[in-house]
Amino acid sequence: MNRTREITEAGLFAAILVLFIVGSFYIPILGNLMVFFLPLPIVILTMKNKIVNALIAAVIAGLISSTLVTLVYGLSMAAVAIGVGLPLGWMMKKKQPALNVVLIGGLGALVAFFLFFLLLDLTTGVSITEEIERSFTMSMDFQESFGKTMESMGAENVSETFEQSKETLEEMLYLMGLILPSLLIVFSMFYTLINMLMAHQILKRMRIDHRPLGSFADFTYPKHLAYGSAGMIVLAYLVGSTGFVDPVLLTANFSYLFFMIFAVQGSALIYYFMNKYFNKGLSRLMLALILFIGGFQYIAFIGFFDVIFNIRKFGKQAG
Questions:
Q1: What is the sign of the dihedral through the CA atoms of 161, 165, 170 and 175?
Q2: Tens of pLDDT along 101-157?
Q3: Does the pTM of the predicted model rise above 0.90?
Q4: Distance (Å, rounded) from C-alpha 105 to C-alpha 124?
Q5: How far is residue 135 from each of residues 128, 144, 203, measured CA to CA in Å?
Q6: CB of 236 within 8 A of CB of 279?
């Protein structure tokens, strides 16, 4: 690729990133979607061009956007695009397995989001915990005012219902504050996964060489992940029992990560067996229903044992 083409291509993707950042700031609903896919222009540019050009393009996009929105927002969004887009694009360019791509991209996302919240706290004095508390308080205030309105209209048992809802919201607020570190990790991985899936669709249409994802039904973690995860939960319990760290905080975060990680494996296993009897559309619908009705933890345990014993091999033998 000649130098002129490299610069032109970098400029084009920088302009796309500017549109994403500015659009996410000004457009009410579509803007939220743009925030979710901020890394995409950098992922594709990294696949097509040099990493240094992708980095420069993102920095320039951040500086230009800052003149159209705010300095903090423009640079923060550019940092997220760089933190996720560069490692994600680089790993995909090297045709690494999907699990490795999500892991490295997720680490980049975690660092980017941590810096974003830190910068937000330093510049505005608003922390993520305060924002969560504020959103829950607004919800409770709305319910209280709604309840008073219903009471004035003659509705019965409104106060009792409101108190129950208030207790539930307070419990949810406590839980979210407790597992905030693991929530940030899971969100970073999920954010990376969504961008990777979308990037693969774009790469297909642009006919850029890349490693195919493969079927979700065949997805599996390496066996040592199951042993490591079980060991970490035991270690968390032992460390918590010493009193140096809050045992509830430690155990809650590791347990949440355990369920989130192995629910993916369990879902893949269930999807594998469903595909044997139903078409893909019906299999996906049934899997979504199982997760929705509260089978999440059971699926996680199924996934954990699948990593250890490779349950799918029994299905292949039976087939």
A1: positive
A2: 999 999 998 888 888 877 777 777 666 666 556 655 555 555 555 555 555 555 555
A3: no
A4: 28
A5: 11, 14, 38
A6: no
